[in-house]
């Protein structure tokens, strides 16, 4: 005789597991398909050539040149040398300065390490040419401190890291879904019904009617039959 198997109930934590697997797959897939990003940095030094040169003045000039390093006046000259479009230079090159030293850091990012170094060096050369052309008015000279070199390791997250991030994000979403399902499945509390109070014609509470209802209600008998004792 074949016994019919009872249907198995789906575990209550299935949204957590499903969202975790989905998040891990999405994160790992994005890590494999996304382009790797490489970064390369070059450095420019600013020297104050005016009479009575002040180191603090050189720092201020470096910060001023750092703000225009990613402007169109410099990038338009650098785009031909870098071999990329102007929009690509705007997105892939950034400049930063130090509050203590007259130095400008030019960093390029690209899917290839060699391209990142080429972009950074092109902007570095264009900035130096732009600054030295205005040396008579600014009293500053710009020179290369260090050229950008191709990086051996990417700066973007590795596929395993993105997989872990996707897994954590999926688990958080699954936990939220699980909490919502748990709160939605709670049974409602008992409903207490309050009997209506008798009221007179004016709508006010009438205590006389309530006393009449109490008198008319049957009362339980409290007397017990007496049992006779045999003589």
Summarize, please.
The protein has 231 residues and is of the alpha+beta class.
- Which class best fits the helix and strand makeup? alpha+beta
Total helical elements: 8
Q: What value does the Rg take, in angstroms?
A: 41 Å
Segments where pLDDT lies below 50 for 5+ residues?
none
- How are strands sequenced across the largest beta sheet? 2-3-1-4
Secondary structure: number of strands: 4
Protein name: Chain length determinant protein
Transmembrane segments: 12-33, 160-180
Biased composition (Basic and acidic residues): 201-231
Region (Disordered): 184-231
Molecular structure report:
- This is Chain length determinant protein.
- It comes from Streptomyces xiamenensis.
- The chain crosses the membrane at residues 12-33, 160-180.
- Residues 184-231 are annotated as: Disordered.
- The protein has 231 residues and is α+β, with helices and mostly antiparallel strands.
- Among the domains are: 15-32 and 157-180; 35-146, Alpha-Beta Plaits (2-Layer Sandwich).
- 49% of the residues lie in helices and 13% in strands.
- It has eight helices and four strands, in the order αβαααββααβαα.
- The chain has a four-stranded antiparallel beta sheet.
- The radius of gyration is 41 Å and the shape is elongated.
- The protein starts with 13 loop residues before the first helix and ends in a 15-residue tail after the last helix.
- The mean pLDDT is 76.
